[in-house]
Specification:
By secondary structure, the chain is mostly helical. 83% of the residues lie in helices and 0% in strands. It contains seven helices and no strands. α2 runs antiparallel to α5. The protein is elongated. It starts with a helix and ends with a helix. It is found in: Chromosome, Centromere, Kinetochore; Nucleus.
Length: 233
């Protein structure tokens, strides 16, 4: 007999540690179900309109020419049967998948989340002065719960990525130093090669001059011999 009184006087008796039991889900179509049915009806109507009598008659030219009334009656019955079968199958899917109940539940959750978000926004001024307090997790908005669960993992991933980036930057610096050293080595080799080419060109020029001077010396000796031969005569 004292337990109810104690629960009534307890300061946190109104804060339940778990969500209250959910009310039964109504099977009357809510906003999302209604919109889904409207979209399906529009799509089905466009499909039926695409099967026009002109397109249907083009597939059966002989009956269309001789018995157009009968063919048009068949076309109407075919479209009606198609629309009826598609609608019945859609209704069966709604029942089999419990679409109405699930979408109504989604409407309810969205509505509750919107109300809690508005209430939380209105109460942030007072909480800013007194502190955040102990808020039951199931009363938080979905975005806050999502961030609370995802933020630690993102922080760990961020740390790993930053470490990899720093290692890559260090490797890039080392590669840059190696490339600069290789460029300096290439420039040194090019300078040495140019010096060798200059030496080869100088040697070729000197050889050419020596060959020309040697020919002149031979001609001079020959002329001297001719002069001596004439003097002897």
């Amino acid at each position: 007999m004292t337990s109810p009184a104690r629960n009534q006087n307890h300061p946190n008796s109104d804060l339940s540690p778990s969500p209250p039991p959910q009310p039964p889900i109504a099977q009357t179509p809510g906003p999302r179900v209604t919109r889904l049915q409207e979209i399906y009806a529009q799509a089905l109507a466009r499909t039926v309109r695409a099967n026009s009598y002109a397109n249907f008659a083009a597939c059966f030219p002989t009956p269309a020419h001789h018995v157009p009334a009968s063919l048009e009656n068949v076309w109407r019955q075919l479209n009606a049967k198609l629309e009826e079968s598609a609608t019945a199958e859609f209704e069966d899917i709604l029942v089999e998948r419990d679409v109405i109940g699930q979408l109504n539940e989604l409407d309810r959750l969205v509505g509750e989340a919107r109300v809690r978000s508005e209430a939380r926004g209105a109460g942030e001024g007072g909480q800013g002065q007194d502190g955040e307090g102990n808020v039951p997790p199931h009363t938080l908005p979905p975005d806050d719960l999502f961030r609370a669960h995802l933020t630690p993992q993102l922080e760990r991933t961020k740390g790993v990525l930053e470490t990899k980036i720093q290692a890559t930057e260090g490797e890039n610096v080392e590669l840059g130093v190696r490339v600069q050293a290789q460029r300096a080595e290439i420039e040194r080799l090019m300078a040495g090669l140019e010096a060798v080419v200059a030496d080869v060109e100088g040697a070729a020029t000197a050889a050419t001059q020596y060959g020309s001077e040697n020919d002149l010396r031979k001609e001079a000796l020959k002329m001297d011999d001719d002069v001596k031969a004439r003097s002897d005569i």
